[in-house]
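Running co-folding for zinc ion.
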Amino acid sequence: MLGSLLGGNGAELITSTTGPQPADFADVRATNLAVVLRFVREHAPCSRADIAASTGLNKATVSSLVADLIDRRLVRETGLTENRVGRPATMLVLDGSPYAAIGVEINVDSVSAVATGLAGERLLTWRRSFSGGDSVNQGVAGVGAIVRRVVNRMTKEERHVLGLAVAVPGLVDVQGNVRIAPNLGWHDADIGGDLAKALRDPGFPIQVDNDANLAALAEQRFGAHSGASDLVYLTGEMGVGAGIILDGRLRRGGLGYSGEIGHVQLDPDGPECHCGRRGCLEAMAGIGAVLRKDLSPAEIQVEIEEVVRLARAGDPATLATLGSVGGSLGRGVSILANLLNPEVIILGGYYVPLAPWLLPVVQGELADRVIAAEAGGCQVVASTLGHDAAALGGAARVLDSIDSGRLPGGISRIP
Ligand SMILES: [Zn+2]
């Protein structure tokens, strides 16, 4: 529940039960600006009186904060008035027309880039082939080249880039250092620092995160289950990893290594895993277990289409493989459901085209293995965000930092 402290002059504080506590009035004002901006994002069109009534901030404070957000071109007046009981009100909506958030996803054979506006509208979606597997330097050069082109495009559209977040398939610590990305062959790499150098200190923040974490943020903000406060996203690539959102927040764990469900051992005598152990979920239910061949990433898409064709035609061997993979996946999903009790577990990547065959098996396992009735209310669904969910999540992470008070233009003067 929101409550207000410290009345008057835009220095009134809205507190919530979570989140950092501001240290001084500048922080208080930044926090309140963020509260108002979030309210407009969620409730636009809305009036200043609506904001005051819902946030507990007084009307003078709201007027001052709204004026600041209009100055920063984060909010604008629609010019429309709405007749209600009482006097007509000027309605507010998100502006954000001079801004863009960029997300980039590094895959083994491609880089995806997404740019969105402040309200999450897609401005650009690009995918380029990439050979990041060679070395970190070459990888950074390739990513830097695509980011430079995205930034140039945004600049041409007279948009200021708010930030960039890069998704990497691997262990990324809380500082954003890539500890190990096995499929890229990268380890102990400061991709964010290297990218900043490659882009010659571009003047916007660069963040680096695990691909599953960012895909989970994309689902939370843009997906079919957006707004779910307890959500798990499961990547379905060669690797299987989980991005975990609990109580509305991404949970990275102490050092940033949470969500490695792919290396939970399901069978000590199972197939060998990339990590060198045996019978990991990833070895039994990753895409490698469906295709059972050592394919280049470029070939996987074609092979998956063939699997879908065979499954549709009722090919017994294909259906048996999907049944077995679905069973292993269901055991992994049941561990997540027993441990975390999420509202929804979202299957991404190559699980999406295979979902018609995997989901019924997974749901059966869930019903058998979760101790809470009705699987603890946990649904398992296929992602609707497509293959660039993690890139979109990069943009979502940039927008999240705006929502949490890191507004463009810095913290405004105290009145
Ligand atoms: Zn493993």
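Result summary
Residues 263, 273, 275, 277, 280, 282 surround zinc ion (CB under 6 Å).
The two ends are 27 Å apart (CA to CA).
Job closed.
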